[in-house]
Each structure stands twice: as C-alpha cells, then as structure tokens.
Amino acid sequence: MTALLITGIGELTTNDESLGEGVGGRLRDAAVVIEGERVAWVGSSAVAPAADERFDATGRAVLPGWVDSHTHMVFAGDRTAEFEARMAGEAYAAGGINVTVEATRSAPDAELEQNLARLVHEARLGGTTTIETKTGYGLTIADEARSARIAGRHVDAVTFLGAHVVPSGADPDAYLDLVTGPMLDAVAPHVSAVDVFCETGAFDEAASRRVLEAAAGRGLATRVHGNQLGEGPGVRLAVEHGALSVDHLGFLSQADIDALAGSWADRRGGSGRRGTVATVLPACDLSTRMPLAPARRLLDAGTVLAIASNCNPGTSYTNSMGFCVATAVLQMGLTVQEAVRAATLGGAIALGAHEEGWCDPQGVAQPAVGAIRPGSRADLQLLDAPSATHLAYRPGMPLTAAVWRKGARIA
Asked: Model-level pTM greater than 0.90?
C-alpha cells in the first residue's frame, strides 16, 4: 500500500482536540501520512515518518474536506425568475418547489444525472468531499425512486424527501398515504434517511409525525426541515423522534434552543438517546431574505451545529461551502474555527458519518469523516493560504488549492 506524506503544513485543523490546540485541534508545522483511503499518522513535520511519496504544503493550511449534509441536487429546470422576484421584494413561499417538480418529472434520466454530476464536480473543486442529497422533486413513486437511484451513483448519502410539498392537484390525505406507504417502500432500498418539510404550506405537525413514524418503522434515520418560515413544531418533533438533524432554524423560541441543547445533554449523560444536530443554511437565508439562523445562540447553548449549502435551484443555488463558512463568521457570529468545525465534523455528525462503519449508498462501510486523525477517511483540502482564517478574511476568493478524497487527489 502506497503511503503519502503531506508535510510542511502551516496550520492543520484536525477536529480532534487531543491532537492539537483549541476548537478544531489545530497543529502548527504539521504533517499527515495517508495510506490507502485512510489517515495513518498525524503530528509534527519534524518527526514525520518516511513515506513512498511526499507532498510539500509549503506552509499552507490543511483542513478536513467539507461535509455538505443538506442538498437538493437531483433536479431539472431553472427558477431565475423566482429569485429575481424575491430580490424585488416578493416574499418566499414553499409553492415554488412545484415549478421544479414539473421540470424534473419531464427530464430524462440522462439530463438529471448530467446536472447532478456537474454540481458534484463543482463541489469537489471547492473542497467538499462528502455530500448528502435528497429526492423531493419527483413526488411520484417512479420519479422519487429514479431520483434516489441516480443520486446514489454520485453522492455519499441519499435522503428520501417525498414529504417536500403536496404536488399540484393532489389530495393531501391521499398523497400522505402514498409517501408513508408505497413511495417509501419503493425508495427504501436506495436511501439511508427520510426527511419531512414541517412547515406552513408543506406538512403540518400531524402529517410530519406520520412521516417520521413511517421512517422509523422501516429502520431508517430521520431528518426534519423545520422553523424556516416561522416558529413551529419542527424542532420539537425532530428531538422527540431522535432525528439526526433539524435544518433551517431561522425562527426559534428559547424552548426550541433548549430542546436541541437538551438532546445532547441527555446523550452525554448516558441516556442512550440520539442528539439532534442543528443544521444552519446561511446561503438559503440570504437568498430568501429570511432571518439568519441564530447559530451563535445555538452553539452557546450546547447544541452540535452543522453548516450546509442547501444547494437547490430555488432558494440556494450554490454548493460553495467556503461561502457558507464565510457568511457564518461574518454575519452569524461564529469564529472561523467554530464555522469550519460545523462545516466538517458537524456535518458528519448530522449524517451519522463521524463514526467508523457508516455505509455509502452501495452499502459499503466507510471510515469516519469530518476529522483528520489516524483511522479517519483521508479527506483533506489544502488552502492557498497560511490559515483557515483566510476563508473569512478573504471571502469569496477561490482558496482551495488541492483536494484529496479517500486518499486520492481529485483536484
């Protein structure tokens, strides 16, 4: 097995506080050894072991590859007109999703696959090494199943989002029966989790509860889109059902924040309950001109925070995790180290991918992602900068100089 030594790292973010200093476990003048698909060694460049190949980082920063834990990238069509209307003052409503549904249903498989592959390639060039994406733009049994199959060929985790909106012309009760029955049966072999848009204009509390219970009945993990357009039951339902994450979170009561923090206090206390990650989507908040999620309050309360792109054609047409991190620092009150951790290890926890043995869509067990430590998957990015601070110090600049995924250089 060939070993690669990456040496001369000016600042290495490990996300393991036992290996380095402060939030992110940072090391100066560091080195990493990769063997196969895994990290084999981490430490000081001065005592780095020999390896078959050597890469000199020349004093630049290395950090884990981004983990984008919330995207909607299987789609066709364009919603530029909707975006333009929002920028002119029109309020965002969930109904625009049906525009993409119509286009996606009409698109051949090859078009959907080509568009997804393009978006994944863009994300990889920007340092994203782990990607989740959702179905949710088909909303028929056949279209949701094909979306899941196509997604599984390109991303690391696939989530069923048949409960995105009720499609135009459908009876809400009949559609809910479809989502929690035959549609779930059709997609279950291709997905690892089920999501529900618990929001005004989408699915109310009772309907959302049915979706979550149906998912649990099939042994699938759960997620919730919640509290995007206003306060509501999304956070409470997510915590109650042990969801991996609840995402958006622009409108939170103190009770919501306490519930999310409490889910992690219970877990740390040995209750056996699963903590629910609070996933914030800064690019979406900006694109919809909604309040930015209170990331600082969530983190200070003791929640585990994730940052994701929410890449989709209507409300967040970007897969730049660097942009999302910069926004979280400049406008949401996080430090650079906190934002980087949320966009790497936080996203991994939101996918259940931070521990050894999680499975990709092909059912292949994977090493843990989101950190750079011995045994983790060798997913790293090199910045053309001496520290991760430059992600916010020089916002919008293309700082990703090299990317390794599963030990292989991909950019």
From this structure: yes
